[in-house]
Amino acid sequence: MSDCKNVLIFGATGLVGRHIIQQILKGKNAFDRIAIFTSSDTVNSKSEEIAILKDQGVEVLVGNITDENDVKKAYQGVDTVISAVGRNMIEHQVELIRLADQTPNIHRFFPSEYGTDIEHGPESSGEKPHQRKLKVRASIRSCKNLDYTFLVTGPYADGDPVLYLSPNHGATVTGSFDVRTKTAVLLGSGDLKIAFTTMADVGKLLLAALTYPDVSRNKALKVKSFTTTDADLLEEFEKQTGGEKWKVSYTSIEELKRLEKEAWEMANPLATVITLRRIWATGGTLYDKWDNEAIGSPAVQSLAEAVAAAIDVQLHGERELKRKLV
Ligand SMILES: NC(=O)c1ccc[n+]([C@@H]2O[C@H](COP(=O)([O-])OP(=O)(O)OC[C@H]3O[C@@H](n4cnc5c(N)ncnc54)[C@H](OP(=O)(O)O)[C@@H]3O)[C@@H](O)[C@H]2O)c1
User: Fold this and answer.
1) Sequence ranges of the domains in the chain
2) How far apart are CA 38 and CA 52, in angstroms?
3) Domain 6-155+197-224+288-295, what fold?
């Protein structure tokens, strides 16, 4: 068995990367080394966040992710690479994977997945938002020396902008929970089941995958916080915001598909999100089996906890970030 004890993280100050590094730090006794690779731009623009990470024992390696020498240098002494790069850098992971495969000390790579299973069914291979992640999966499977784990989480049950428990400003018709105005837009009739993971749990479940390297080796590891429906989410939002009924409207799946088609035709940047919402609402997150138990059943958040956190984020937003990081 090869342990995952010397980890290097790409994208550690990004939306989900922040949660991943925080959870890894909570389990830091299990690691010999925790390093992040980031850019000088990030070091300057997020100096306070970087300083907090350093205080917590994180090694901060600064370089250009597209510079082969910078990456090779950062790979020294690392056995596991965790990528949480954003969608704009997904395809560049093919290069990061090639270099990792050539680095004898690296044996495991977690590419930036953290979404629905992109190989869920026959139709998955044709979904536009999956194409670059599918290329990354193919590149890692062709490696000679590298094992992988694809952490499959479904949509995030969080209230940060654009996420499922947010007002989804600018695209409310594709689903919305707005705490300030007490309005919601539900998909279908509100009774469609979706399996969610909160971002904190993405970090926690990734930590568990690292501590069960045999179980998580060379597989799409399917994890979740909970399965629920829009109607149950709404009921919880109403309960936690004073009990008053919210103003609710519905978007049928047919309408969602029409909006999706229109968005792709118009090259609307929201097209990816609309397609993902259609996939989530039509069974794309419902698997035969989840792997939480196989990686030690880490305690995950409940629907009530996720809604409470989403209300907090919607009302207080970024101001909460510092408190969470400290
Ligand atoms: N399931 C869901 O609901 C959901 C929602 C959103 C995203 N996701 C998935 O989660 C993964 C991460 O997405 P995210 O939204 O967390 O990413 P993000 O915040 O957009 O970006 C993450 C990090 O990528 C790095 N990065 C981006 N552009 C770069 C560049 N040009 N050069 C160098 N580094 C660059 C940065 O790293 P530094 O921190 O080092 O600067 C950045 O913080 C993706 O695979 C995405 O598809 C899933």
Assistant:
1) 6-155+197-224+288-295
2) 15
3) Rossmann fold (3.40.50)
**How is residue 242 written in tokens?**
């004073």
Of 241, 155, 149, which is closest to residue 198 (Cα–Cα)?
155
8 A C-beta contact, residue 129 and residue 272 = yes
| Ligand 1 shell residues, CB under 6 Å | 11-17, 38-39, 42, 65, 84-89, 112-115, 153, 155-156, 163
Q: What is the pLDDT of residues 101-133, one digit of tens each?
A: 999 999 999 999 999 999 999 999 999 999 999
Annotated catalytic, 133?
Answer: yes
DSSP state of 126: G
198, 158 in Cβ contact below 8 A?
Answer: yes
Task: Give the three-class secondary structure for 171.
Answer: coil
pLDDT of 177-218, one tens digit each?
Answer: 999 999 999 999 999 999 999 999 999 999 999 999 999 999
Q: What is the DSSP string of 184-200?
A: EEEETTS--EEEEB-HH
Residue with structure tokens 């992040």? 36
DSSP, collapsed to helix, strand or coil, labels residue 228 as strand
